Every structure is written in structure tokens, then in C-alpha cells.
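User: Continuing from earlier, I have the next pair ready.

Assistant: Great, send them over.

User: Here they are, in order.

Assistant: Folding the first of the pair now:
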Amino acid sequence: MRLENKVAIITGAGQGIGAATAKRFAQEGARVVLAARRLELLQQVADDIIADGGIATVFSVDIADEEAVRQLVAHAVEAHGKLDIVVNNAVLMVPGMLANHDTRAWRQNFHVSLDGAMFLMREAYPQLKANRGAVVNVSSVCGLLGSAGTAGYSAAKAGMLALTRNAAMEWGKKGVRVNSIVPGVFLTPPTQGLMPDEASQAATAKSVPIGRIGDPVECANAILFLASDEASYITGAELVVDGGRTAELNTGTASWD
């Protein structure tokens, strides 16, 4: 029960890593507020948590809407009396090649991933300060490495890493820890849309040193650690959870087998 008596907001909680995180938090004793746009997905996750003996409420929100974010934080405090943990997992990726990237599409990458994270951190800060809370921002390996066609998304995720470091510096003396998770490829509904068949999934798995695609619960476990008191002396950090993908230096045809 590593999060016993803690209250957590988790954005993008309707599926994938967000849903897995919400379930793990609830299993560890947290009262969770599930936030995303699609209420029907949130309710399914909440129903699973409640059926398993946990406590969950749902809140439909556009995380890029400042007023909606204020209402989200107010809902968490009204429903559960306080707020201890924020997990910024909501994301929107709009692909595009730089040479002809549409301006509106470029900016959409930032509205949810980066702007929304900042809005929620800012609105939650008084509660986090009062309760010596924690923030976990879900970035991406695309924020560390270049990837053709994802310049806007990659820039937003790199910005999230910088936002994490700055918040950690500003809020550390107030007792608030802020860290980033940097996921690689996980088998979630969005990634399944990009690799819908076994052949594409097998090719992706082959590119990962550990030899497989990650299960969302494996990322959720890392988020749980950073949110818990077990990480009490960790702030401003980037925990990469990618099966070793970013550890590799591609040497072309060289082989030492």
C-alpha cells in the first residue's frame, strides 16, 4: 500500500499507460481521479478499479483548456479532500515533416502534451505544496532522439523534460518532487494503430535490445515508484523505460557476436 491515503490525478487515463497507472495506483491504496476527454473510456477503467476494491472518480476534460483544468483540480479536492500526486500522461501527436509542416498541426502537439501539463501543475501546486506532493510527467524517447515525421511531438516531449527540471528546481524547497518518465514503445491502442499486424510488431520488437514491446503496466510500475515515498530523494530526474532502446549506439554492419 505504497500510496495509502494519497489522492492522485492521472490524465490520459482512459487507455494505455494512463489506465494501467490508474489501476496500479488504486491497488497501492490511492484514491484516483481519472481525467481525459472520452468519458466512456474513463468509466470503464473506473469500473474495473471499483470492482477490484479501489476508489476512483472520473472527470471529462480538455487538458489544454485552462478553465477546465481548474475545474479538474477543484473536483479532486471536493471529492477526496486534497491532492497529493499529479501524473501528466495526456498526449496528442499530430505528425508532419518539417519542410511542409502545417502551423496549426505543429501547435496542436504542444497544446496537450506541454501546455496541458503546465496548466495542471500550476493549478495543482497549492495542494501539492500543502501535502508535500509529487508530479510525474510522461515524456517520450522522442524527446531524447530524433524521429522523422514527429518533429512537433518530439519538441513538445523534450519541452516536458525541461519543464520537469525547472519545476523541480523551483518547488524542491517547498517539498514537491517533480520527475519525468521517458517511455519507449508500449503496446497501447495508439501504437497498435501504427503497427496493426504481427509482422510490424515483430519488426519493432526486434529493434528493442530486450527483444519485445513493453506492457503498459511496466511503465505504470515506474510511474508508481517515482510517485511514492520510495523515491523521496529523487527530483528533476528522467527515468527511461524503453527496454534499452536509447542505450544503443547503432554501429551499422559491425558485429561482435
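And the other member of the pair:
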Amino acid sequence: MRRVANIIFIFLTIALAITIFLLSSDTGEESGSKSSSITEMILSILVKDFDDMSLKERQVLINKYSFLIRKLAHFSEYAAFGFLLYGSYYSFNTSIVVKKRMMILNTWLFATLYAVTDELHQKFVAGRGPSIRDVMIDSMGALFGILVFLFLVNVIKAIKKNKLMK
């Protein structure tokens, strides 16, 4: 079962890494357009009467919240990446005696390194450029994803332990 979990985690991790790379390959104009569309969709759900607003009022709201939505997207995609990456490492190394702290650190450093290379890649994309702030957001997202994975593992272990005690 662990072997299957490991294969699934590795596949999903690689798929997400490729997705992140492809999203970073969008030109500045393409990326901005996608961000605006996603922001508009989110605001249409969260803001009462958004659809009844004038086009100008909607655009003001979209411009106001677009930056926040983009940064939350960075955080979220790297939270998922950290979760999957740690899952790959965890499901592979459970039979090997590896200190948990070292696994966490290695995973976090790898995710952060990927974020750095992703930002450097954007230097070669029209209308885009690298951002240290984005690397920091990505890095914190990856750490959050790792911590969520650890939390879920502990919850599952506690549930199993309680079932065995009954």
C-alpha cells in the first residue's frame, strides 16, 4: 500500500511542478488576464450584488483585489506542492530511519529551491520578471503544506490508536 501511495504522491508532485512551470511560462499579459478573470470570478461569489455593479465599479474592485488573489494563488499552489512533496518523501522513507526534522527541512528547502528556479525562469518570459517576495510567499506556502501533511498524519495515527484501544 505504501508503494502505491508513494507512486501517487510522486506523480501528483511532478504534475503540479509541471503545472507551476507552465503557468510561469505565460507572458505578463496572459498572466494578468488570467489573474483578472479569476479575481472577477471570486469577487462575483464573495461580493453581494457584484453582477449588478457597473463595469467601471467591477473593474475598480478587480484592480483592488487582484494583487491579493495572485499572492494567495502563489501561497496555495506551493502549499499543495509542499504537501505533495512531503507526502512523496514520507511515503518513501517510512521504512528508513530518517529524522522527521531532516525530512521537513529537506522538503522545505527543495520546494524553496524550486520556487527560486521558477522565478528565475520568469526572467526569460516576456512581460514577467523574478520576485524575491514571491519566493518568500512560495516558501511559506510550502512550509504550510508540509505542516498540514504532518497534522493529518498525526490525526490519522491518533484515530488508529483510539480504534486499537477500544
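Worth noting for the second one:
The chain has five helices and no strands. The chain has a mean pLDDT of 92.
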